[in-house]
Amino acid sequence: MRVVEASTLVPGSILRKPVFNEHGKIIVNANIPLTEEIIKRIHKLTIPFVIVDDQLSELLKEKAMISDELRIEITQKIEDGFVKLINTDFSLRWLSSEKNSSRLKEMIKSLQNELWQQKDVLSLLIDVLRYDKDIFTHSLNVAMYSLGIGMKLNLNKTQLNLLGLGALLHDVGKIAIPKEILNKRDRLTEDEYDLIKQHTIAGYDLLRQIPSIQRVVSDCALQHHERIDGSGYPKGLFGEEMHLFAKIIGICDFFDAVTSNRVYRQAMLPCEGLTLLISGSAKLFDAKLISIFSCLLTIYPTGLHVKLNDGRCGIVSRQNDASSERPFVQIIEENGIKVSTPYEVNLDKEVKLEIIECTQIVKKIVY
Q1: With contact defined as beta carbons under 8 Å apart, do 165 and 121 qualify?
Q2: Where are the domains of the chain?
Q3: Contact at 8 Å (CB) between 131 and 81?
Q4: % helix / strand / coil in the chain, to the nearest 5?
Q5: Considering only CA atoms, which of 338, 317, 337, 334 is closest in space to residue 326?
Q6: Rounded CA gap, 227 and 233, in Å?
Q7: Is the N-terminal amide bond of 178 cis, ω within 30° of 0?
């Protein structure tokens, strides 16, 4: 089994998965040799990628096939990822409420149970984890953020499961992109960037070939790089043309991407990532969803070194329930001189004080 561009199909190739139209109806069956007429039908539907069994995939089976033992091991890693989501100290201020924390933990368990009942979906996640651990970790992070927004929107359990599944699988199309391009340190060429953008279409096509996956999950893969002003890809959709879940995932995908270390750049701080999001909220992202998202975030994580507008420096000592932008700060320096006895200020009470600079993270909060 391998993913190939539809333009490379030749008579005799065999589809591993059927091809569906936009209404979920099978228009090309799996497990039959392709004819020129069928290939023309696929081209007419402008489907760029398909999953096939052919002579080359036969040659690859010895290398690609994984043992039952390895599959169990990788499955366990996926399960461990969900356990980590449940047990780790998330960087969501909203989770400081025990009620909210319990709801999200319950939702993650529900999503995990849903996955374990869908072997095709679990197999896709295994493929993603085998292909690139960072893509898998990023997908878990995006799912957690997305569920937080979805719960604030009072989505029901079925909707939350679909949103979580869409977030987990939003980048599955990247397994069709060469690793050397995905992880390139230097600036991408125009052709390389165009190829990376194809992961949205590749993901959509992969997911549409799995009957158990609902259309909205496929749409999340297709639309998560669309922007409300029509400047996104692959279709240049405008606001109302995008699915709500894709809008949510697009915000969470962007935030996690810029606040995570990459081979080609250092991670931004949460406050920097949120500022970048807000700066594009009117044009690129849904402002209401960003407002909800910002209420969930710990913008200045505990342990962050900060400088105030009056010249004092300190360390974020604890979060402020009233405002994530106004935490408590333990002052350790005044006018460049270390204080003999550190003391705490509450920025929510000191209205004239502002954080103007973040210098380093003593304790990095991960999830």
Answers
A1: yes
A2: 2-64, 68-296, 304-361
A3: no
A4: 50, 15, 35
A5: 317
A6: 8
A7: no
SS3 60: helix
* 147 contacts 163 by C-beta, under 8 angstroms: yes
Tokens of 60: 């690859």
d(CA 359, CA 352): 21
CATH number of 68-296: 1.10.3210.10
- CA dist 195 and 222 (Å) reads 14
State how far the Cα of 166 lies from the Cα of 217, in Å rounded to an integer: 4
Classify domain 2-64 by CATH number. 3.90.105.10
Instruction: Please report the pLDDT score of residue 335 as a whole number.
Output: 87
> Per the structure block, which two tokens stand in for 222?
């297709």
* Sequence-distant contacts of 61-70: CB under 8 A, at least 24 apart: 64/1, 64/2, 66/130
Q: What is the dihedral of CA 338, 339, 342, 346, to 10 degrees?
A: -90
CA distance 161 to 147: 9
Cα–Cα distance measured from residue 260 to residue 246, given in angstroms and rounded to the nearest whole number = 21
C-alpha closest to that of 256 among 130, 360, 131, 168: 168
Show the CA angle centred on residue 93, arms to residues 87 and 98, nearest 5°.
55
Cα(225)–Cα(233) distance, rounded to whole angstroms?
Answer: 6
Widest Cα–Cα separation across the chain? 82
Residue 26, H or E segment? strand 26-28
- Please tell me the pTM assigned to this model: 0.73
For residues 299 and 314, give the distance between their C-alpha atoms in angstroms, rounded to a whole number: 16
Residues of the chain with pLDDT under 50: 1, 23, 55-66, 360-367
Instruction: Return the CA Rg of the chain.
Output: 23
User: Left, alpha or beta for 220 (phi > 0: left; psi -120 to 50: alpha)?
Assistant: alpha
Which CA distances in Å does 343 have to 1, 324, 331, 332? 63, 20, 5, 7
Phi, psi of 38 (to 5 degrees): -65, -40
